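Submission checklist for the structure archive. All mandatory fields must be present; incomplete records are returned to the submitter.

[x] Identifier: Methyltransferase domain-containing protein
[x] Organism: Obba rivulosa
[x] Residue count: 317
[x] Sequence attached
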Amino acid sequence: MASSLSYLHPSTQYLSMTMMMSVHLEHRILVPEEKLTPKPILRLDPSLLNLSQKTRIFLCDEVTQDNAELRRRIFDVQNEAYEKHPSPYIYAFKFLATTMSETPIYPTVLEAGVSGDTLLLDLGCCMGTDVRKLVYDGYPASNILACDTRQDFIDLGYKLFGDANTCPVHFFTSDIFEVPVQFDEVPPGLLTSEVADLEELTDSLTHIYAGALFDLFDQPMQKSLALRLLTLLRRKKGSIIFGVQRGLSEEGYVDGLSRDRNAHSPKSWASMWKEAFAEAEGEEFADTRVFTEATLSGASDLGMYKGQMLHWSVRIM
């Protein structure tokens, strides 16, 4: 999910940041859909498609150089997705965003992937645009995994990119909250192409991307999610968890559609990860080996909400 929503047409200003982020409860992973099913809010408006130059180049190279065909394919996928899961995420073409590549830590992640023994997971991949961009930028596809709870979104990604039989990234469906929290080391030997469940990745990942994810939950659930990511992480020097989400200058709850949702400040975000690492590896490890970086972007004005985005990374030194 992209960190900037500035391209939205003025007529949709009332689509608040809360609405834009909340759809990930339905679209990127985590909550049984009967708990939150957004209603159709607007008829689709093709004029809202306004790709950045970088995204346009990427899509032209990976989908088609024919602009008319590219637009047709985008609109077809959008229509099909919106019929099944009507939400602002689909309405505003967010499934095309390459937000992972816009994070400050991305060059470091990419360099490590190109030159080292790494394994990256995009948790809540939706249609898989971010991981395809990662491969496009040079990260070895054999070292990338992408997970969502919904196979239909993965299939729509294949339809958009026309690569159902050729995409080198391994996609699978699984629920992170079904992963048991445990911090024992697991012997190596994982075949990424055969992964079918997140639990199989215990103590295996060097890079985890969790975009627009943590701010969907209250504090206890955020801590629970962090511990499960640490369960999957290879907790050695160089490993990184990173993402982007709604943030506040002072930690506090924000409006959600059906639940309390906590937005972190840079300070509270670092504190949460310190607590999680202390539970996983001990206080000395948390104090001396973990480096958390979190910065707030400038305000985004969407009419109903003026807010900031928290760009963050957690590295083991």
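[x] Structure attached
Curator remark: The mean pLDDT is 85. The longest strand covers residues 306-316.
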